[in-house]
Structures are given as structure tokens and as C-alpha cells.
Amino acid sequence: MALAKMSVAEVEQFLRDEFPQAFSGDDITIESADGQTCLLRQRFSERMLRPGGTVSGPTLMALADFAMYVVLLSAIGPVGLAVTTNLNINFLRKGQPGQDVLAEARLLKLGKRLAVGEVNLLSGTSPDPIAHVTSTYSIPNV
């Protein structure tokens, strides 16, 4: 795969301008993105929890999908209409309340029209994933 077509700062600016409903606050930060991988951090908030005190599935799915979008943008540039065509998640263990959630995404295959990747979601400083995601994105003709 090629080097990054957008830096972290460029991806952040693009997201603030084009996708503020997903990237307008300070709850998610892009720690790195290099055209092949990215690391996102979602700061802990009580809104992330479901009954029983675990991080909710919708929170984890949204973060994983967003991480795939970020790594894809870093690889192909500002293509706002790239969209998720498939997302599969396996919940592996409970996400701990009070801990940030990290999303480590990497592209497995980048084609002209489809990109396939995976995301490991981690809770706090634990090296053991709380969820594993595979995802496919459709890349429009530009």
C-alpha cells in the first residue's frame, strides 16, 4: 500500500468540515494515521455505558466504523462518499467503565473500489481486545 495521502491534521480538518456530526467534540482523538493503520482514542464518558456497567455495543461499533473511515481517508485522500458496505463485530470481553477505548485499525486490502480492514478495540491499558471488527468500505469513482 502507498504512503499516506492525508496527514492526521488534514484528516481532522476534513472531518471537522465535512462530517461534524461524528467529529466535532473532543471525545474522539486521532492519535496516528499513516495510510495503512490508525489509532483512535475515545475518552471515557458515562454515555458509553449500557446497563450493567459495560461499554455498549453501539459505542464500540461506531468507534470501529469511524476508525476504518479514518485509516481509509489517510490512504486515499479526501473522498467523503466512501461508505461502509459491511461491518462484522465480535465482542470478546467486557469494556471496563472509567477507561478510554482505543481503536487500532489497519487496512488489509485496498483496491480501486473496495477496501477491507480490521479493527481491534481495547479498553484502557489492557493488551487484550474487547472486540474485533472486520469491515469493508466502498470507494466511489472520483
From TrEMBL:
Record domain Thioesterase: where: 52-124
Transmembrane parts of this sequence: 66-89
GO cellular component, one term: cytosol
Keyword Transmembrane helix belongs to the record: yes
Superkingdom of origin organism: Bacteria
Coiled-coil portions: none
Alphabetical keyword list: Hydrolase, Membrane, Transmembrane, Transmembrane helix
Gene3D superfamilies for this protein: Hotdog Thioesterase
GO molecular function, one term: 1,4-dihydroxy-2-naphthoyl-CoA thioesterase activity
PANTHER family assigned to the protein according to its UniProt record, in alphabetical order: 1,4-DIHYDROXY-2-NAPHTHOYL-COA THIOESTERASE 1, BLL4964 PROTEIN
Protein name (Swiss-Prot/TrEMBL): Uncharacterized protein (TIGR00369 family)
Organism the protein comes from: Bradyrhizobium stylosanthis
